[in-house]
């Protein structure tokens, strides 16, 4: 039986179910208990380390899983992470499905699913609404919409956080999507799901789970409060260096299986693979090549984060605005070409409230290029003796520009010279600076030697939003500007500083939101994912340096291949080779 035959068989079963009359749109509500006859060993006691059999994974995911250390889960920031919707239905808790109905039309607005284990709560929208934009926040359960195909409910899910497909280090990235089918047969419910991940899966992963209707509607809460279980150095991330995981072969030895059979790959799911003793040729798939990012639409879009703060995104760059009774504070002004659109979007949000402050998180022109136009669109409050010092009352016709003095020192050297209106009017040289604006405390935090030596993060305390600038990005490996004082260790230290500030609301989700310099809106769990990656890469490159490996040898070893598909840029300083060179140089210099 070929793999294509297996897939055709699965979809034939599904289409047979769909072929029933479309009138049904069966009632899925009620309390459902999981049936464990399917993959019981994996679902209850848990999978063995190194068991990747039957999963269509590539070399990137294989390396990622080989590096995984179960003690990672003792870190407070990992303890309360729930199963994502791509894995939660295979858990041990009952599933409750309820409906929210539009009272006027009696149509179902959404189905709500609640799995008792870890209190996994999810909305499946039935009212035809679109999925959020790509820059919106991701959640453990994702954003789901559904429609009926006959008597089968088909659900499409996007905006997922990175999560399990098997609880032994096998993950999906936050670019994965899921398609589900819910099929009811009397008192039994079949859940079929298909996961696609361009970074770690060579073809869709299809799994099924069964449930039986039960009469007990009771559910207990599942609180989780993280704590320090194992004393560790700050920022330590448990993991195995390449080739040094001593547990990978234990599963094969215990069950007398050929190693080739447990290493995963689409062919390991086929009967003939084991019939030949696992000796069929195993295709080794390289990490997915990163495609060039789609051309930005050159429009500026606004997304309300929470409290007084909005995230603005355009041209692949993020900015932020805080709006209140005192006016507007703008964090970063994007590129010169987007400045007019940024001002227009701010006016749309703020009405006649003036732009009072501009804050630059660093010197790069894609974040400071709009300074002049945005400042000219603003107003300052200047009076008394300071009016003369500021150059007369005309200075009040511009917004003030605040940044760290290291940023100003680099802006002075920009050629051709920047106009006076684009230059900072106020600087600080300390580790922190603060003000009270629009009813909340605003902290400006200097994080030295990360992207550059002048990086500033802005924390809106009441709104509970942190703007990180280019010290953190979700779109690529970090761009570490060594010539401007940046360093790899500084990036890792800054990410840990972010985690000192963020506090999740529940189940390691929500709470403090973080606006990165580039990419989608995030929370603590997303920063943890990026921090873990950066720490693991740092440790791998440092280990290679300690072994005396040259830069070319480190590049040839492809120590980043488990992250290349997700974070390797197609061009520039964040390509895998360019970032490895930066990391190597930075660590050599630090040492």
Descriptive report:
The structure is a single chain. This protein has 591 residues and is α+β, with helices and mostly antiparallel strands. The protein folds into two domains: 3-131 and 138-218 and 245-275, Lipocalin; 301-526, Metallo-beta-lactamase, Chain A. The protein has 17 helices and 24 strands. A hairpin with a 3-residue loop joins strand 23 and strand 24 (522-523). It is globular. Mean pLDDT is 91; it is low at 15-24.
Compact overview of the structure:
With 591 residues, the protein is an alpha+beta fold.
Major sheet details: 9 strands, mixed, barrel
Q: Find the CATH superfamily of the largest domain.
A: Calycin beta-barrel core domain
Strand tally: 24
- DSSP strand (E) fraction? 25-35%
- Which fold does the CATH topology of the largest domain refer to? Lipocalin
Structural class: alpha+beta
User: What spatial form do the alpha-carbon principal axes imply?
Assistant: globular
Lateral arrangement of strands in the main beta sheet? 1-2-3-4-5-6-9-10-11
The helical percent reads 10-25%
The gyration radius over C-alpha positions equals 26 Å
CATH top level of the largest domain is Mainly Beta
Low-confidence stretches: 15-24
Taking the alpha carbons of the first and last residues, their distance comes to 56 Å
CATH architecture of the largest domain: Beta Barrel
């Amino acid at each position: 039986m070929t793999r294509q035959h297996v897939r055709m068989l699965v979809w034939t079963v599904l289409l047979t179910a769909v072929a029933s009359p479309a009138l049904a749109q069966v009632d899925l509500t009620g309390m459902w208990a999981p049936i464990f006859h399917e993959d019981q060993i994996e679902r209850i006691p848990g999978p063995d380390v190194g068991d990747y059999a039957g999963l269509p994974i590539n070399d990137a995911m294989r390396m990622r899983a080989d590096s995984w250390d179960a003690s990672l889960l003792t870190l407070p920031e990992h303890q309360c992470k729930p199963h994502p919707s791509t894995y939660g239905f295979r858990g041990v808790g009952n599933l409750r499905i309820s409906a929210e109905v539009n009272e006027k039309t009696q149509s179902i607005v959404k189905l709500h699913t609640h799995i008792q284990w870890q209190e996994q709560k999810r909305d499946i929208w039935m009212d035809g609404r679109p999925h959020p934009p790509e820059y919106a926040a991701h959640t453990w359960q994702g954003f789901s919409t559904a429609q009926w195909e006959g008597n089968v409910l088909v659900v499409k899910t996007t905006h997922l956080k990175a999560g399990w497909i098997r609880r032994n280090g096998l993950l999906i990235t936050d670019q994965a999507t899921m398609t589900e089918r819910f099929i009811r047969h009397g008192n039994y419910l079949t859940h079929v799901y298909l996961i696609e991940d361009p970074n770690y899966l060579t073809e869709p992963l299809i799994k099924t789970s069964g449930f039986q209707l039960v009469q007990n509607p009771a559910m207990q809460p599942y609180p989780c409060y993280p704590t320090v279980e194992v004393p560790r150095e700050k920022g330590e991330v448990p993991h195995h260096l390449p080739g040094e995981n001593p547990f990978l072969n234990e599963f094969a030895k215990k069950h007398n299986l050929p190693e080739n059979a447990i290493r995963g790959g689409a062919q390991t799911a086929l009967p003939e693979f084991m019939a030949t003793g696992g000796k069929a040729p195993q295709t080794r798939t390289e990490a997915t090549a990163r495609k060039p990012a789609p051309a930005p639409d050159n429009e500026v879009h606004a997304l309300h984060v929470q409290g007084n703060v909005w995230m603005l995104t355009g041209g692949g760059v993020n900015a932020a605005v805080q709006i209140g009774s005192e006016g507007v504070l703008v964090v970063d002004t994007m590129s010169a070409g987007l400045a007019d659109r940024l001002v227009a979007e701010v006016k749309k949000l703020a009405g006649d409230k003036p732009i009072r402050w501009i804050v630059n998180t660093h010197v790069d022109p894609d974040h400071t290029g709009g300074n002049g136009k945005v400042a000219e669109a603003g107003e300052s409050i200047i009076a008394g003796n300071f009016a003369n010092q500021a150059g007369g009352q005309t200075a009040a016709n511009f917004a003030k520009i605040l940044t760290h003095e290291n940023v100003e020192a680099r802006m002075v050297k920009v050629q051709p010279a920047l106009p006076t209106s684009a230059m900072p009017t106020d600087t600080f040289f300390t580790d922190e600076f603060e003000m009270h604006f629009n009813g909340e405390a605003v902290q400006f935090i200097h994080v030295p030697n990360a992207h550059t030596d002048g990086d500033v993060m802005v924390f809106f305390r009441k709104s509970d939003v942190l703007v990180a600038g280019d010290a953190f990005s979700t779109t690529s490996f970090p761009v570490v500007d060594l010539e401007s004082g940046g360093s790899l260790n500084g990036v890792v230290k800054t990410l840990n500083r972010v985690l000192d500030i963020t506090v999740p609301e529940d189940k390691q989700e929500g709470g403090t939101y973080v606006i990165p310099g580039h990419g989608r809106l995030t929370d603590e769990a997303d920063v943890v994912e990026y921090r873990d990656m950066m720490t693991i890469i740092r440790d791998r490159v440092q280990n290679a340096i300690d072994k005396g490996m040259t830069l070319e040898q480190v590049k040839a070893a492809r120590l980043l291949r488990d992250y290349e598909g997700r974070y390797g840029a197609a061009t520039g300083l964040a390509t895998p080779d360019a970032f490895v060179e930066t990391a190597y140089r930075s660590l050599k210099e630090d040492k």
